[in-house]
Structure formats: structure tokens, C-alpha cells
């Protein structure tokens, strides 16, 4: 195999969702002299940002303050977030809304023309701006319109398979085009990873099928650290294929029922029942399933039938549609099978407040990164916001980094590209003794069983061994089809390799955190433990392939962390 | 039950392919996209199709199902399989790259052609925006539908006029044009009018209504086109 084409850019952005495109557009508007390319393994409008429904938190109302948003975010994250980063997020939130408004987004408005805002969990103000229930979709499409307008160079359906890094400095990226099958080397002075989350390492996930943590794994393999990668947010009610049934169903009075017909929330939260906090409802459902009171196949029922056809049609039309199209169940006649579903990756590539990683020239933003604004648990309405704020932010920090004329030393470039190419070619050489679907299935099951809602040293230890074993077996995977044009076999194999790296890091970091905080709940350490664990976890890969664990202090600026979290 | 699926296969670089039959276990609740996954995982790893969100919001997985364009992720497989063989082909009015993967180049060219972005009269955001008051209820409704469009190309695929007249920009591009045509914030209105009235513009539509029937998001492209046509007609009076 050989490189078909070499490209030279100042900046290469990987990922064309809200973070990646915002960055590209900001650079195009303010630094038109910089040559920027955006690579995405799908067309930009297929990015997972588009699936976000609810909205974006920003203190744009006259009687709200960004300082309150700041505090709500810190508390919601169990004080694990870095306060300087959350400051950036909350203070720049209004500007992000205004920027998207200027780009043409159709935000819902109040009768007086001000931004309409709805209430979201964990916040003391109605702070969430929205475009009906399709906020992410509307913003992603608006952003793409502007990107086309400003002639951002988009390489859609290009898959990045490795980063070329020499002596801690980024030189470029190796990628291939699904459409043409051409292999390209993209030399760059800086790169931004904006590839989203890694929810697909779990068998039950609300994430798009493409959310395989590619950017996280690329950075990890190149020597950057994964930070707080033990934290995955889990939503209580997903269909069996992971698609979300929003909290609105329970808000309208839906029951959660086990196979004995009991409203089991009675046992766990007799006062709040189905409307108890998300993490508690998730754990209650899982407890029922684990204790044998779920239905065969591992789920409980979300029952809307008592609400009556009229109310369901009038108040919950979307939920009814989702159930009919994606589960084949009409909730007017039958209960909906549901179980908790992995929803969001709080951890990611360790970056500073410029979104710069420890590799010179390599940046990360959005869900792929961990600048640390979500801590141990993300508030609803803060994920699109993070992508927008830090996408725009990197549109300034990356040009600033390049302003001194930074040029990486390319003396070993050819040799390193050849080595990466040889690694890539090895996937096609020799006999396969393992197959991707089998390994992927085992990884997904292991992650749910060992690193799901209830974590315990013993199950995690056996989970870790299993993941390490899968990583070993993965070396025996080969791809038969050598034509690179829409080579689904190859894509699935590369994605599995990425996911196994992240699963491995998650397993190690989870075992090390001997406390319960946010999404990380341990039966054997049920309490939050600030004296020992108010710190970030870092996992890095050494040059010999071994994984190293270390810690990093949480940045405290002005707010003393609480020792218990209560709402 | 085992469903029977006759699915179009085509090697990259070739221009013709043929259907291949797969017998796939089809449980209640399975979507057609999940049947594709099963084929790829258990039968033929090289089987190619597009996917992303599997929740009908990304627009990746439109194919023709028994001859009609629709999203594979939004289609329940069992009710179809119970009726007989399920025939799946790539979208038409676009070339095929491999198996069920269509080449969207022409689709995005039509999209780009209508300059689908807000041309601002000023470079500030709108602190207070009351222009919606100026739009009638039917336009507000249609605007919301236009925003819903997921660019899956089902409408373009099944548009008979596009087949007859390849220079017609097609229903999706017309929706995109509509999105800005009536937007009081937009400073490029004259361009929008000219684009709509151009030979391959919205005026080329012959109201076949297929676009309304196949749209998985109920965008109703023909309705948007008719609003534009009405406006053009009122101008020429």
C-alpha cells in the first residue's frame, strides 16, 4: 500500500459536528489566511450533534447570571470539573447563542422576541435555549450552511486511521476516502480532534453507531492521556436498541413496571416514584433486572396505557412515534420495553483550557475532549454548549498557537508515515483467526456487565481481564476485502480497535477510583470521598504498549467543593 | 420468522449490479437497518450501506424499500417480511458507488446551487427577534418543516421530474430555497427569486406529489414549492 496523495494544511480538523465545524468556521471568519481542512468519516450533517433534542444552557435572560450557571454545572458534576474551564463555558455561553443566531439558527423566541428558555434538571433558572425538540439538528444544519458559504474545505467520508507524531509533536494524519478509496497523508501544523463520544463501547447505548471514540483513541495511541474516562452517563429509559424515550413520558405519568406487574419505584423512592433523579431511577431499573424481576432479555416496562389514547396522542406524540417505528410497539395498546442506556462520555482527551493536549500541535474539543466541564456527571443542556463554546474557542486558540510561525520538525516524517502505513497494511495480511462481530459483542457485553450502573472491585477486575484478553485477540483480526471503497469490514475493524483501547482505559480508571461520584457508582465504596478522590484520573499508553495510570489535581479557583451532593 | 430479503449488490468501479437473496431471522421490533447489520455481521462483512444515528435524524440510511424511498432505520422489518420478499435497492436519480451506497455529489451540488445560508443585512445577532409575527401561521408551520429536513435524498430519488429533467434542482433544494425565501432577515431575496424562477428552479416542479409521500420527516416539499410559485405569480401580476 502507498499514499495516493499528500495534502498540506495549517490546520486539520477531524470531526464535523458542532465542535469541529464551529472551530473551522471561526477560523475561516477571522483567519482566512490559514489553510484549514475538515475531515469526517460521515457527511457533516450526519454527525451525532444532530441527535441532541433538548437545548443549550446559557444565562441570556435579564434575571439570570452566568455565575449561577457556573455553580450549577460544578455541583451537577460533583465538583470534579475544573473551575477555570467551567468559567469559560458559562461566561461564553450567551455569546455562543448569539453567534449561532447570527449564523441564522431558528431559536424559539418569546412573544417579546427574547430567547425562549425551558427548565432542565439541576439548574435554578429556566436557562435552556432551544429549537423545538430538534435543537442539535437545527444548529448542525445551520452551521453546515455557513461552512459551505465560507468555503470551508470539507473532506467528507474520509476516515482517519492514525496520527503521525514525532517526539511529542504532531506532523500530520493518515486517512482514506470511502468514496474513492484513495489513501491520503495530511501534513498539518496543528490538528483538532472533534470526533465526539465513545458510548458505543457499551452494548446498550443511545449514541449513534458512529460514536466509537475514534479521536480519543487516536490521541491515546499517539501518547496523549485519557482523562476521567471512567465516567459514562447512563439514561434510565432507552429502547432495547438504545434509542431514548425522554423523561417527558414519566413527566406525564408513565409507570415503570417489572415482570410481576409491580411499580417497583415504590421500593427505591416511594416519594418521587418514577420521577426520582435520573441516576437513582437507572440504578433501580437495573436492580430489578439483576434480581430477576425484569422481563426475559433484560428489560422492564414503561407503561403509558392508563393515560389513555387521547392524552398519549395529544401530549406524547413523539414518544408514541418512536415506540411504533423503532420498537414496533404502540404505547396506547402495549407497554414499551425499556432499560438504562449509556448516553454520554464525560471523559476524553486531556486538554488544557486552550484545548491543547500534551502533544504539541494536537488539540481536542467537544465530547472527544476532557477540558473538564462536566466532571463526574453532565447537566442536560451542557453538551451542545460545550461543543459550541470550545469549538469557537479553538477557532481562536489554534491560530494563536500558530501565530509564532510554528513548524514541526519533519526530518523523520517519511519514515513515520511508512511505519503507520505498514501497520495499516498488516490488517490485510495473513490469516484471520478472530472476527470483528464476535469480539465487538463480547466487549459490549463485558462493559455493560462490569462497568455499568453498579461497579464493584471483583466484577471490574474480571471485566478488565476480559477486555485485556479481547485486545490480545483483536491482533488476530484481518480484513479480507482490500478495496478501500466503502469497505465496511475495514471500518468496523478499525473502530473496534479504537473502542477496545478506550474500554481498557475505562476499566483501569474505574478500578482505581475507590469511591462513588456522579455516574461512577460502586457497591463496595458507596460514598463520595473528597480527601482521596477529588482528582482527575489519567491513563496513558507507554511506548512498550503498557498502560500507565496517574492523577491530576482538580483546578479550584473560587468555589469550595461540597462533601455530599443533595438536591 | 426468517424473512427473505433481495438486496442490490454492486462492486465499486462497476456500473451495474444485481440482487442477492438473504434469509435473515426477523424478530418483532427489528428495523430494516438492524437486518442490514445482521447481514454484515453474520453473512457478508463486505456488505455496504450508510448508517449513523439509527433514530431517523441523520438522514444516512435512505434506500428504496419495495420500490419506494425511505429510511431503513425507521422501517419495521417483520410486517414487510410477513407479506413476502422484501426488495431493497439504492436510491435512484443518483449513481451507485457500492451496494446500497448512493453517490450524493449531484444532491449536494443542487443544494449548494441555491446558496442555502442566511445572508445577513447586518453582522449582529438579533437580541429581540419579532419577525416571526410577520409570517402567517402556514408559513411558520412550513418553515418548521423545512428545518426538519434531514437531507436523506428520498425525495430526490423518487422525483419523476428530476428523472425527466436532470437540471431540475429537485425537491430538497427547493425546500432549502424556501427556508430563506420568506425569511425577513435575509438580504439575498432577489437572488432567491431569480433562482426559483430559473429554468431548473422551483418553477420546474410538475407537482407529482411523490416528495410529500416519501419524506420520512413530513417536510412536504411540494407545499414549500407551491408557496414559492404563488409568490412568483403574485410578482408577475
Overall description:
The complex is a heterodimer of chains A (567) and B (237). Chain A is of the alpha/beta class. Chain A folds into 3 domains: 5-231 and 346-402, FAD/NAD(P)-binding domain (3-Layer(bba) Sandwich), CATH 3.50.50.60; 238-340, Flavocytochrome C3, Chain A, domain 1 (Alpha-Beta Complex), CATH 3.90.700.10; 427-540, Methane Monooxygenase Hydroxylase, Chain G, domain 1 (Up-down Bundle). Chain A contains 17 helices and 19 strands. Chain A has helices at 18-30, 66-76, 83-91, 93-102, 135-149, 214-221, 248-251, 265-268, 278-290, 309-315, 317-327, 383-402, 413-426, 436-451, 457-474, 488-512, 530-533; strands at residues 5-14, 36-40, 56-57, 117-118, 128-129, 153-156, 158-166, 169-177, 183-193, 226-227, 232-238, 255-257, 300-303, 336-345, 348-350, 362-364, 369-370, 535-541, 547-553. In chain A, strands 1, 2, 6, 7, 8, 9 and 16 form a 7-stranded mixed beta sheet that branches. A 5-stranded mixed beta sheet of chain A has the order 17-15-10-18-19. Chain A has a 4-stranded antiparallel beta sheet with strand order 11-14-13-12, covered by helices on one side. In chain A, helix 1 (18-30) runs parallel beside helix 5 (135-149) and helix 15 (457-474) runs antiparallel to helix 16 (488-512). Chain A is globular and about 70 Å long. The mean pLDDT of chain A is 95. Chain B is an alpha+beta fold and 237 residues long. Chain B folds into 2 domains: 2-102, Roll (Ubiquitin-like (UB roll)); 105-236, Fumarate Reductase Iron-sulfur Protein, Chain B, domain 2 (Orthogonal Bundle), CATH 1.10.1060. Chain B has 10 helices and 7 strands. In chain B, the strands form 2 sheets. Chain B has a 5-stranded mixed beta sheet with strand order 2-1-5-3-4. A two-stranded antiparallel sheet of chain B has the order 6-7. In chain B, helix 4 crosses helix 10, helix 7 runs antiparallel to helix 8 and helix 7 packs across helix 10. The radius of gyration of chain B is 20 Å and the shape is elongated. Chains A and B meet through helix 4, helix 5, helix 11 and helix 16 of A and helix 1 and helix 4 of B.
Amino acid at each position: 500500500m502507498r499514499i495516493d496523495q499528500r495534502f498540506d494544511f495549517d490546520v486539520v480538523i477531524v470531526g464535523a459536528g458542532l465542535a469541529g465545524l464551529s472551530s473551522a468556521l471561526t477560523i475561516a471568519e477571522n483567519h482566512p489566511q490559514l489553510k484549514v481542512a475538515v475531515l469526517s468519516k460521515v457527511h457533516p450533517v450526519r454527525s451525532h450533534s444532530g441527535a441532541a433534542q433538548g437545548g443549550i444552557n446559557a444565562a441570556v435572560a435579564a434575571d439570570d447570571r452566568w455565575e449561577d450557571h457556573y455553580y450549577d454545572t460544578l455541583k451537577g458534576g460533583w465538583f470534579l470539573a475544573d473551575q477555570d474551564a467551567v468559567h469559560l463555558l458559562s461566561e461564553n455561553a450567551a455569546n455562543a447563542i448569539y453567534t449561532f443566531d447570527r449564523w441564522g439558527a431558528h431559536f424559539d423566541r418569546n412573544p417579546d422576541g427574547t430567547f425562549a428558555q425551558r427548565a432542565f434538571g439541576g439548574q435554578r433558572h429556566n436557562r435552556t435555549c432551544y429549537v423545538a425538540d430538534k435543537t442539535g439538528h437545527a444548529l448542525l444544519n445551520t452551521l453546515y450552511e455557513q461552512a459551505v458559504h465560507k468555503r470551508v474545505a470539507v473532506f467528507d467520508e474520509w476516515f482517519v486511521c492514525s496520527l503521525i507524531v514525532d517526539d511529542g509533536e504532531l506532523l500530520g494524519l493518515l486517512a482514506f476516502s470511502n468514496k474513492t478509496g484513495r489513501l491520503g497523508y495530511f501534513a498539518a501544523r496543528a490538528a483538532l480532534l472533534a470526533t465526539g463520544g465513545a458510548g458505543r463501547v457499551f452494548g446498550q447505548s443511545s449514541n449513534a453507531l458512529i460514536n466509537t471514540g475514534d479521536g480519543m483513541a487516536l490521541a491515546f495511541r499517539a501518547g496523549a492521556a485519557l482523562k476521567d474516562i471512567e465516567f459514562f452517563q447512563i439514561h434510565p429509559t432507552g429502547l432495547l436498541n438504545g434509542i431514548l424515550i425522554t423523561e417527558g413520558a414519566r413527566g406525564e405519568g408513565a409507570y415503570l413496571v417489572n415482570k410481576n406487574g409491580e411499580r417497583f419505584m415504590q421500593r427505591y423512592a416511594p416519594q418521587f416514584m418514577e420521577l426520582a433523579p435520573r441516576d437513582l431511577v437507572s440504578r433501580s431499573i437495573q436492580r430489578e433486572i439483576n434480581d430477576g424481576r425484569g422481563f426475559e432479555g433484560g428489560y422492564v416496562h414503561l407503561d403509558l396505557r392508563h393515560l389513555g389514547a387521547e392524552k398519549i396522542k395529544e401530549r406524547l406524540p413523539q414518544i408514541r412515534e418512536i415506540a411504533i417505528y423503532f420498537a414496533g410497539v404502540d404505547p396506547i395498546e402495549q407497554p414499551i420495553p425499556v432499560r438504562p442506556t449509556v448516553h454520554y462520555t464525560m471523559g476524553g482527551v486531556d486538554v488544557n483550557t486552550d484545548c491543547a493536549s500534551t502533544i504539541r500541535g494536537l488539540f481536542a474539543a467537544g465530547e472527544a475532549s476532557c477540558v473538564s466541564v462536566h466532571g463526574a456527571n453532565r447537566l442536560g443542556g451542557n453538551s451542545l454548549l460545550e461543543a459550541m463554546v470550545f469549538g469557537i474557542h479553538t477557532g481562536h486558540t489554534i491560530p494563536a498557537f500558530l501565530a509564532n510561525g510554528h513548524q514541526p520538525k519533519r526530518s523523520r516524517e517519511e519514515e513515520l508515515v511508512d511505519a503507520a502505513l505498514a501497520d495499516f497494511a498488516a490488517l490485510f495480511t495473513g490469516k484471520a483467526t478472530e472476527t470483528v462481530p464476535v469480539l465487538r459483542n463480547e466487549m459490549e457485553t463485558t462493559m455493560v456487565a462490569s462497568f455499568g450502573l453498579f461497579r464493584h472491585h471483583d466484577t471490574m477486575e474480571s471485566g478488565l481481564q476480559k477486555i485485556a484478553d479481547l485486545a490480545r485477540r483483536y491482533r488476530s483480526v484481518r480484513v479480507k476485502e482490500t478495496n478501500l471503497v466503502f469497505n465496511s469490514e475495514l471500518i468496523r475493524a478499525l473502530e473496534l480497535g479504537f473502542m477496545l483501547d478506550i474500554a481498557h482505559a475505562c476499566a483501569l480508571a474505574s478500578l482505581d477510583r475507590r469511591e462513588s461520584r456522579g455516574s461512577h457508582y460502586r457497591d463496595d465504596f458507596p460514598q463520595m470521598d473528597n480527601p482521596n478522590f477529588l482528582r482527575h484520573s489519567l491513563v496513558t499508553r507507554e511506548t512498550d504498549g503498557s498502560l500507565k495510570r496517574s492523577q491530576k489535581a482538580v483546578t479550584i479557583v473560587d468555589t469550595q467543593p461540597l462533601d455530599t451532593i443533595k438536591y | 420468522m426468517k424473512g427473505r430479503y433481495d438486496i442490490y449488490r454492486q462492486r465499486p468501479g462497476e456500473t451495474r449490479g444485481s440482487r442477492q437473496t438473504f434469509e435473515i431471522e426477523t424478530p418483532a421490533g427489528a428495523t430494516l437497518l438492524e437486518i442490514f447489520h445482521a447481514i454484515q455481521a453474520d453473512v457478508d462483512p463486505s456488505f455496504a450501506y450508510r448508517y449513523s444515528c439509527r433514530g431517523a435524524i441523520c438522514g444516512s440510511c435512505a434506500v428504496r424499500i419495495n420500490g419506494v424511498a425511505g429510511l431503513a432505520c425507521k422501517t419495521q422489518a417483520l410486517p414487510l417480511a410477513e407479506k413476502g420478499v422484501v426488495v431493497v435497492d439504492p436510491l435512484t436519480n443518483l449513481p451507485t458507488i457500492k451496494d446500497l451506497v448512493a453517490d450524493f455529489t449531484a444532491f449536494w451540488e443542487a443544494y449548494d446551487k441555491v446558496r442555502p445560508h442566511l445572508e445577513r443585512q447586518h453582522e449582529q445577532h438579533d437580541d429581540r427577534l419579532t419577525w416571526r409575527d410577520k409570517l402567517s401561521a402556514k408559513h411558520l408551520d412550513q418553515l418548521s418543516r423545512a428545518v426538519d429536513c434531514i437531507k436523506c435524498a428520498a425525495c430526490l430519488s423518487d422525483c419523476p421530474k428530476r428523472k425527466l429533467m436532470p437540471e431540475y434542482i429537485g425537491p430538497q433544494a427547493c425546500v432549502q430555497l424556501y427556508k430563506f425565501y420568506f425569511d425577513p432577515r435575509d438580504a439575498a431575496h432577489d437572488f432567491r427569486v431569480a433562482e426559483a424562477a430559473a429554468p431548473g428552479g422551483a418553477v420546474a416542479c410538475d407537482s407529482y406529489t411523490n416528495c410529500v409521500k416519501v419524506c420520512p420527516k413530513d417536510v412536504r416539499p411540494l407545499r414549500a414549492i407551491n408557496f414559492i410559485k404563488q409568490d412568483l405569480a403574485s410578482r408577475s401580476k
